[in-house]
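Students often ask what a holo structure prediction actually looks like on paper. The answer is less mysterious than it sounds. You provide the chain, you provide the ligand, and the output is a string of discrete structure tokens encoding the 3D arrangement of the protein together with beta-D-mannopyranose.
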Amino acid sequence: MQFLLNKIKGTKIKNLPWQPKPEGSTAPVWRYGGNPIIRCDATPTSNSVFNSAVVPFGDGFAGLFRCDSRAVSMDLYPGFSRDGIHWDIRPDPVRFEGDPEVTRREYRYDPRVCFLGDRYYITWCNGYHGPTIGLGYTFDFKTFNQMENAFLPYNRNGVLFPKKIHGYYAMLSRPSDTGHTPFGDIFYSVSPDLTFWGKHRFVMGAVHGDRSAWQSTKIGPGPVPIETDEGWLLIYHGVITTCNGFVYRMGCALLDADEPWKVRLRSRFYILGPREEYERAGDVPNVTFPCAALTDSATGRIAIYYGCADTVTGLAFTTIGELMNYMKRYPL
Ligand code: BMA
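The corresponding structure tokens follow.
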């Protein structure tokens, strides 16, 4: 059963990385054949390179990569690519300019990058007496400015919307605890200036019970929401607690265009989960964790970048039509 052909709004990316869906596949998302695209030792000191954020930049792409070092410290490293598949990740982490109280580094991980107005904004999980949402910007991925942390600790997974909504900057986030957080729902907050955040709204939560157990422990926003003709398409992660620990999979939802805390559609089934060896085995087994999506408005194609088992970076593909059909066919 096919539904209406939906459209992605926004820019065209002519050189979006892409492979067609394998013949006979019934999955809404399929992996790049050359996965993982970034190995754990991509920089001279890295132990692992995973939950990472990429955007179109110049003739190619740029991004910030979560590299855990061989001291097993967590930081963000800039990287550049011509094709979105082969990446040159710089050997040194970003250095932020800004108020020393805020730039004082405890740890940084799980970046998202969002082009908005004239610059690339960066959000990440920032250590400041516990995890909170760090916020900064760059124009060139060479110099970086840090702003105030968006929220009080504790929070992970802060994701900006790529345009202002009713005149306000808008962000999804997932309040947490200081540990590995056995709970977690997604909230929406707005700000007039990217410093003061408020009007917090509940968006959606973990699904308790058996109906959609892959997202029964916690959920968190993934890539920057994708603007479509029907609302905001959100790819997110969902977690179940098993006897061997957490398992991280991906799902998707459609948020209202004007009031994005209202969920219009949400998939009951996950769209991608740990299946391949590099997703199943690594420093943290059974994790597929999306942090970025490149989209092409001309074709409706979507390329998802995701961390695999907290060790390497994978690439997967889908289209707006695939995800909309899946949500409408298998609604929560
Ligand atoms: C979360 C974050 C992610 C990580 C996941 C699985 O709390 O630390 O970066 O991928 O756990 O370990």
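The two ends are 18 Å apart (CA to CA).
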